[in-house]
């Protein structure tokens, strides 16, 4: 069966917009998938021992939360032996001026206080240059994405941090 050139030309004109749309969707999806940052799951001991490997990266770490006077930290042990074994928790990067800012920070602090003396998993960006209050820690967890009970798999799906 022979297809006329005229029919072939009209068919290609009809298919051109569809092909262009499909190509656009394909390349846009591929580009978006490439920009999603991978969260590195690692031990707190590994993070403290090799901070240069994880500086500026999103990490998922589990440890014991300690909240007290001049202390907001995640530690690998049930007792805080030395702040150098721990990571400072920077719950919010500001601003801090308005009532809405204070409310946002209070809400985050209330979530974190629920874990005081208990284990929690924190997903956040690690900053090896931020040594926390009075520079006593081995780095800081900043731009926190979530804080949850590591023993409860459903806790991550229903984030209380956001």
Provide a descriptive summary of the structure in words.
It is globular, with a radius of gyration of 24 Å. It has a 5-stranded mixed barrel with strand order 2-3-4-6-5. 35% of the residues lie in helices and 24% in strands. It has 4 helices and 6 strands; from the N terminus they run H-E-H-H-E-E-E-H-E-E. Mean pLDDT is 81; it is low at 23-34. With 162 residues, the chain is α/β, with parallel strands linked by helices.
Radius of gyration: 24 Å
Main beta sheet: 5 strands, mixed, barrel
Question: Tell me, what's the shape?
Answer: globular
Mean pLDDT: 81
| Portion in helices | 25-40%
Would you tell me the structural class of the helices and strands?
alpha/beta
The spatial strand order of the largest sheet comes to 2-3-4-6-5
Count of alpha/pi helices:
4
Strand content: 15-25%
Low-confidence regions = 23-34
The number of E-state strands comes to 6
**N-to-C span:** 63 Å
């Amino acid at each position: 069966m022979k297809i006329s050139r005229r029919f072939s030309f009209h068919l290609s004109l009809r298919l051109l917009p569809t092909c262009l749309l499909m190509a656009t969707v394909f390349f846009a999806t591929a580009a978006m998938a490439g920009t999603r940052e991978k969260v590195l799951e690692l031990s707190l001991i590994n993070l403290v021992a090799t901070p240069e490997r994880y500086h500026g990266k999103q990490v998922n770490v589990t440890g014991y939360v300690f909240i007290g006077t001049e202390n907001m930290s995640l530690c690998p042990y049930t007792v805080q032996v030395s702040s150098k074994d721990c990571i400072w928790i920077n719950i919010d990067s500001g601003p801090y001026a308005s009532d809405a800012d204070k409310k946002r920070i209070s809400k985050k602090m209330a979530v974190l206080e629920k874990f005081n003396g208990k284990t929690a998993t924190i997903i956040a960006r690690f900053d090896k240059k931020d040594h926390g209050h009075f520079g006593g820690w081995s780095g800081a967890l900043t731009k926190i994405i979530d804080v949850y009970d590591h023993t409860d798999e459903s806790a991550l799906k229903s984030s209380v941090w956001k």
